Every structure is written in C-alpha cells, then in structure tokens.
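User: Batch of two.

Assistant: Item 1 of 2:
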Amino acid sequence: MSESPRQALIVYGGWDGHTPQACAELMAERLEGHAIQARLADSLAVLDDDQAMRRVDLIVPIWTMGEISDPQWKALGAAIHNGAGLAGFHGGMVDAFRANTEYQWMTGAQWVAHPGNEHVTYRVEIANSDHPITRGLSGFVLPNTEQYYCHHDPGNTVLCTTKFDQGHGDPSRYHQNVVMPYAWTKSWGAGRVFGAAWGHTVKDFDVPEALEIVIRGMRWACR
C-alpha cells in the first residue's frame, strides 16, 4: 500500500506587488511533483482550524506585511514547534507580520531595506555545498530584481550569500560590499525552518537555481 502524500499548507495574500497568488500556484505545482499535496488558502483564517493545523506537514507563508492575530500566531508557532516544517522566501515569509517579533525569530530573518538598488542584477553564491538543499548546485545570477538587507539570527545555518555592492543611495546608511546571508536553515522546537531572501516576484523563479533551492528547502523542512 502506498503512503499518503505529505500535506502542505500555502497561505498567500498581503501586498499584491509580490505576486503572492502566482508564487503560491507555482510552489504548489512543484511540491505536488514531489508527493507533497498542497492546499492553497488566501485567508489567515485557515490558521484557526485546529484539525487542519494538526495534520499539516509543511507551512509556506506567502504573505507580505499584514497583521496576524495572537491566536493565529500561537497556532502557527505551535504547529512548527510540534514538528511541521516552515519554508518560504522574501516577500512571502521574511517581510510578513512586521509587528510580531516572535514570528521574525522563528523565520530566522527579517527584511529591513533594499537601499538604492531596485531593478538590479546580482549574484547569489553557494556558501554551503554539503547541505542537501544546495548540493551539486552553483551560484547564479538574479536579473532585474531587488537585493536585500536583512536582519538575521546569528544561529542560522547559512546556505547562500550575496555581496551587497550597489553604489546608489546614501552609503552612510549601509555597508558597501558586505556579504549578506541569503538562504538559511534553523530549527524551531521540533520543526525545521528554511528561508531564502530572494523571491521579490514570481519572475525571480525563472532562474532555475533560485527555484530549485526553494523547492529543495521546502522538501527538506517538510515533516
């Protein structure tokens, strides 16, 4: 008898500029190709469903900014702490629920700025080639997108980095040529957490390596 597919919950919404629905549909399609059945929800009310939250093996938040209620945060945090995985990317995961610092602690990073460098092209390097998420992959170029300053948990395991080398903006407010963690893993109780800083819009995932690392990260985090 074949095993039942693992269950992923993809919650999408918030600011439309990050193309949440298109990203959610792409991630659901790719996960289902790896025997992870994805449920899409366009409301945070799904987090109030206790039975659904107990069954889920992976949660993918694709929700920019917005607010999460205290009961919804407790349900989300408890699901991950009890063993479900959490995985996501830029506007979907690390620029969500800005007022909730515990959520930011769980994700491992928080977007803070993209000073003076919209619509730029830059490289992402592999920092840890031994991890199953990045093994066998090479660094890659992201074209016509944004490069991010993020605050990071110093306990993260860093998988990818980028050198912040855009010369525009006020250089007294950021460090030129700083090496910024750009994909990482961490734990939250019994749950695994994966994050990537790229993913401004669904177009970032036209780059095969950018999509492959995120899908691998989701599979790695999934219970």
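Item 2 of 2:
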Amino acid sequence: MEHVVVMGGSSGIGEATASLFGDRGARVTVVGRDRKKLAQVADRITGEVTTRAVDASVPDEVTAFFAEVAEIDHLVVALSGAAGGGPFASLDLAELQLGFEGKFWPHLRILQAALPKLRRTGSVVLVTAASARAALPGTAGLAAINGALEAVVGPLATELAPLRINAVSPGVIDTPWWDRVPAEQRTAVFEGIARTIPAGRVGRPEHVAEAIHLLATNPYVTGTVLEVAGGAHLATGR
C-alpha cells in the first residue's frame, strides 16, 4: 500500500486530495495546523488515514515530523497563502515578505526535510497558483510568490531524479480560502470569472485533486507545471 503525505490537508484542495488518495487505496497522512479540522477530516476520509498537527512555518516542527514519519511514496504540499496581494503602487512589501514566509519558504523547507523519507521512485507535487502567469492587476506580489515556486520545479526534477517533481497551478477554485470574502462579493467574483473563461465556471477542489493524483502517479511525468484554471490562460478575445 502506497503512503501519501498531504501537507495542508485539513481543508480545500488538500483535503480533496487526501480523500481521493484514500478512496483509491493509499495510506494517507494528513498534516495541518488545526487539530479540530484534522479530526473532522479524518472522519470524512475513507481508508487508512492518520493525522498530524504541524505548523509548516516552524522549522523544528517540520523537521520533527519528517524524522518520525514512515517512508513516503508521494508528497503533496498544498499550503495556501493570502498575504501579498493588492495594487503594486501601494503594496506593503513587509506584507509580501509575510506571503513568502507563509508559502514559498515552507514549501522548500518541507521538501528538504522530506527527502530522506521519500522513495527514490516516488513523487512530489507542489500546489502553486495561476496568478504566477495570469498578469492580472493587483496580483504582482502573488505572482512573485507562486512564480518563484514554479521556477524551481524544473531544476529540482533534474537534480533529484529519479524522484519526480511536479506542480499543479490552480485558477479560481471554490474553497474555504474564499470564506474571508463577503458572500455577495464572492458570488460576484465567481460569476465574473465564469463569464470570461472557456470552462464557464469556477473550479472545485476535486478538479485540482484529480490533477494532483495524475502527476503523482504517472511515472513518465516530471518537471511539469499543470494548470487547472478552466482555460483562463487562453486568449479568448473577451
């Protein structure tokens, strides 16, 4: 039975990914910060699942977790980040630094700590964001964070081979990340996105989870950033 570790697995894309791997017969370790959410996730996921509370922004906690965890076939790093958005002219660079501290550095810290426990023929999938390439006003900071993550995928895929390194780059996905936005505003954003992209809708966490599962389990895919954004990158003329 393959062992899958999902960092940031207590909600949204991470939870959907853990659930999918569990449904397909993997032994899943779900890692997050919130013990209450982890307990709820464990109840919702079928199959063999364990949980572990780890704050990925605390190096000692990450190191301790990977020192104790069993050998890993697939590692998924699905840490979300919110800091760093807004118009560039007024962007608080200290806030952008917090964005890097909350997403970019933890991704690298986790991967580095996990290397001794990853099977050489296993895989790593990072979850970035389509803001890395979307060129939307107000997203320069987010593009910097996610673009930096995507830039390391290729070099790591060659350096760490035969371990496979990939990333999935979601567009607008209806996850709890959006709960911070008032409901009426959130609905307007989702409807606006749906009108302007070929898919005609915003994404669901399970759509991204399917892409993560593909990248993790296909032995002939490495060094790839797979966009799951409903065709948002296409020039539709709208």
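DSSP finds nine helices and seven strands in the chain.
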